[in-house]
Amino acid sequence: MAKRTDIKKILIIGSGPIVIGQAAEFDYAGTQACLALKEEGYEVVLCNSNPATIMTDTIIADKVYMEPLTLEYIAKIIRYERPDAIIPGIGGQTGLNLAMQLEKKGILRECRVRLLGTSSESIERAEDRELFKELCQSIGEPVIPSEISYSLEEAKEAAKRIGYPVVLRPAFTLGGTGGGFAYNEDELVEIGLNAFALSPVHQVLVEKSVKGYKEIEFEVMRDSGDHAITICGMENIDPVGVHTGDSMVVAPIMTLSDHDMKMLNDSAIKIIRALKVEGGCNVQFALDPNSSKYYLIEVNPRVSRSSALASKASGYPIARVTAKIAVGMALEDIKIANTNAAFEPKLDYVITKLPRFPFDKFTSAINILGTQMMATGEVMGIGSNLEESLLKGIRSLEVGANHIYHHKFDDMTTEELLDYISVFRSDNIFAIAEIIYRGVTVEQIHEITAIDVYFLNAIKRIVDMEEYLKLHVKEPEALLDAKKMGFSDKYVSRLWKCSETDVSDFRREHGMFPAFRMVDTCHTGAYIPYFYSSYTGGNVSRLTSKKKIVVLGAGPIRIGQGVEFDYSTVHAVMTIKKAGYEAIIINNNPETVSTDYTTADKLYFEPLTPEDVMNIIDFEKPDGVIASLGGQTAINLAQPLHDRGVKIIGTGCEAIDRAENRDAFEKLLKELDIPQPKGKAVTRIEDGVAAAREIGYPVLVRPSFVLGGRAMQIVANETQLRHYLKSAVEIDEDKPVLVDKYIQGREVEIDAICDGRDVFVPGIMELVERTGVHSGDSISVYPSFSISDKVKGIILQYAKKLGLGIGIVGLFNVQFIVDPEDNVSVIEVNPRSSRTVPFLSKATGYSLADIATDVILGLSLKEQGFFDIYPAEKERWYVKAPVFSFNKIRGLDAYLTPEMKSTGEAIGYDRTMTRALYKALQASGMKLQNYGTVLATIADRDKEEALPLIRRFYQLGFNIEATVGTAVFLRRHGIRTRVRAKVDDGSDEILNSIRQGYVTYVINTMDVRCEDVHSGSSQIRRCAVENGVTMLTALDTVRVLLDVLEEITLGISTIDA
What we know:
There is one protein chain. This protein is α/β, with parallel strands linked by helices. The chain is 37% helix and 20% strand. It is built from 35 helices and 41 strands. A 7-stranded antiparallel beta sheet has the order 14-13-10-11-12-17-18, with helices on both faces. A hairpin with a 4-residue loop joins strand 30 and strand 31 (759-767). Helix 7 (152-162) packs across helix 8 and helix 16 (453-471) packs antiparallel against helix 17 (476-484).
């Protein structure tokens, strides 16, 4: 097939804000696709509402619309832009669903827009369960037997026909809520009652359970000439029963016989041909471990989450090839390295993908895994063998473990551990290693977990090597054997009872350095600058005579450190290349643009630990290392690297310490005469109580060593403070707790650049929610909407003093509180790139990461043309709204606090602030309805403030329901209110109201004092989340929502009014 010449302009729909299950993989895919189409000479129009990603930068597509991803907006863009075609399979499920809606509603037909790539019929056949089942049966491919039932009796009959065990899946509940496994009729009745109650259409799918089968995936590719190839086979270490996004995954496939391997591979190719998929496609199988019986689980007729992993695992750019196939090119016509896209990659190394879970941050959430994905991100370890890739993956996770050992399991008995691993949990691998260490056999563990003995034996070999090392202290052969298995110097030092430096020095004395091997799967002799370290094999990374700069990446995506940091590192790499240096990136996240080997001059796919980074630095000998763009991960490496003699360029270690060390920072603020909330670091409970008495309640308490506001609380009195200090934190000499005056005021935030002489502040952002909600969970507005010019002046003056006083070279972020008297205090300074950099860059038009990188490379702000501290503010309004994934994580409370909970963000912009807010809230997925019922349960201290807000809902025509106390108060003030009995009193009236579907908004505020005892209010929030009802816990958010609703609602009045 030849490339299409009848098409000039192509629309690509992105995947929108990051939520659990649809993360940065799609930005990586979308970025690749846009660049690939531009490379072929097409004009590319992109629509995506996620400001955090490089994909929505104006350098990636020809035109970028950051409008909400709804049918209404996409249709407007199509009518305005008149593209010739649209490619549906790039923007994840969101992009695919929108393309299908456009097709069904006749908009594509009306505007003469063609769907490129896989046809809508094929997409529908793959996505619709019944159609997919019919197709599979017609080509003789087995699917899991299932039947739809509408009553408990029907479900029982279906289960008898299918045979136990079965899994129940209620229809139209979010993320598999209410489903479960039943091994007999009694269990079916127990789960079924709940499942039918929760399904709004009273429909439950009864499906044969294949729990315990092996889960195998194939990533396949087909062009329109019916040429189909296999790119990568991947095997889940966890058996079926855990969502593949939460599973540990290895490639190549390791435990299948040649017969089974060929059987499944042939089936994948057969299905992609039958579906007529054009481009990349992911096929998932369940295989009986004791026979060759298998079932097709599902087919994704698009670039999927696994495609990013398969791309990085194989070095084959799946999204790039998919985009080119969509415009009619054949695999043979598409160039990759020094060959074409028709080759099947062959891996001569092992990769292990490990999911990154948020349970270290959300300690109240339940870490049991199931069919609902919970991981926020992932890492990949590459090694010459399974053990090496597994241990490198664990080191990359940043969960406080540098090995397969975790201290959490030290004190559990073997019985408790065996019970612990009897269900799938996020940290089972550490528990399994501990059990093996205690002498339980691999066969016994296999019986309990259904994990293949092959993988358990790899863990056993690691545990055996630990014992061997203990017996052979300071023996070079023993150390080399351990290094070949992927052991870190740090863990060896624990076994040898010495320091990490001792092990590192011993290793160097004996000439033990890793080789840097190439990720090359086409084996045509091409030099691909994509490397991993290994203690086996030869070195192939070539040194050049160019000056080099290393950029440290941000590691896995987690709450508090998202794709925004990858955005900054990618910009840095581009600027470094432009300045004539060789740009080298070190990172371990397979989902991102920074780990595409075409981004930097060289990619090292490695854990971000001092040892792993030092190995690369010793080999490359760069002229400088940038640590201020990869979030906290990179900043944490600055000191250990500096101590090892590495030249950190940009903000140095002394400056980082001045900003991050509490005492040093306080001292600096005193010198600079900048106010901050009164506070004290305490190491004993009584000192904490005394400090709070002196400062005055309410106080904000938190441990001094946290990221993303973990374990922060606002406390109102001594009883509460004592409770917090006793139960929420460990307080002692080396773990101080900070007690600060809690000032209720407006929160204002800036990102700024300092070059050592001048400071540039491109914009001032004001947060909608007052202090007490984490800034990452607040709605952020640029330009600011309520602070005076005087306050702006003070903020800019403080910004300059802070940049120069701390010694920043590059980016920094400052958060301020403005009290009702316009007094400005500084809350904190982050001496690095922050979460808001991409949003502010896009809103102001100044590319902050590029300007900062030039500053780091020695170009002053004045030399770059920035003479003023603050440029003119934009005429338009820009709003960043947080996006949450509460429905994915069981046990996580949706109440907004100083601890960050959002997984992503969306943008809205328009001529008026209300319109920009409307778009941002729409883009964030909030359901904006201007009718229905508002359910209010308001804390006493908030009732006066809430009254005019609830009156505004009432005047818009909303019905009001409330708990007794709130209802009495509202009625007294003339608002008709239905009373609902409290959940705490044993009533489920409120929960039923929410479940029945007529409640539009739930407004729930809590008194600080009630934080722990208010189980009823947390049940209300949980129920609202599970039923997709908008939950509001801050009155400031309610206020802007009302502004929006009043703006979009047409009023009614009598003729003579």
